[in-house]
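**Backbone geometry record:**
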Amino acid sequence: MVQRIDVTGADGVRLAAWEFRESAATAPPDPDAPRVLLLHGLMGRAFHWAGTARWLAGNRRVVALDQRGHGQSDRPSAGPGASTSLGREAFVADAEAVIEQLGLGPVTLIGHSMGALTGWQLAARRPDLVEALVICDMRASALGEASQQEWEEWFHRWPVPFPTQDAARRWFGEDDPRVERPDPGRGAFFAEVMHQATDGWRPQFSRRQMLRARETWVHDAHWEELAQVRCPTLVVRGLDGELGRAEAQEMVRVLPAGQYAEIPDAGHYLHYDQPTALRAALEPFLDQVRAAAT
């Protein structure tokens, strides 16, 4: 069972949060049960975490968030006079608002890519709200202007609209020039953020806004904030993901209470590529956090 809960984020943006339970007959979670907030990456949506959320919901209160500009949350207005933001501060403030308004704190934050960065920035800023953190395939180093230009060029190559959702799945999983070999997990990830428009299948998000959001973090390194995260933190990387082993291990070293896990045969979208292996990596860490809290 999944229940939608509307939350007011920074700047008054309406955010769609989704609470997962085992079934409709399941009683509301014990108020003393551990709480988990799941944060998707750039271009993602809350339901990208559905498989993870379902097993977590067996003994935890589990909420996944559609971050601003994504999924069913509001899309901030574009243009220089816009009253709402797609900057780092806004994403962090939104996560803070969800935790406080839903009474989730202290919470375990599990974030993928951009969502992981949001998680560690919030954990550094509000340690009272975050008892543990999981960072899934997100770098702490600056990516630089060249990376941003590559993304802009990549967005221009998307053959939108796609005639079918399966056509989108095939393009992102096989035909995209950025794909070196067939990647069904990547294809599934992007197929799930397509919606049917009058002329075909298009992304739920604005590619221009995704570039604007990305612009607010790619030029900066985030090591200093990472070092300020005091709670237990698990850094997880896909063996073929965007976070290299040396950088991941340096992140663990910088973190005051860092741990490391590696998922074989997984790329950046590791929760799609190897969900069983990801669960095997997360469960011991989450059980350790739970034991320490009791």
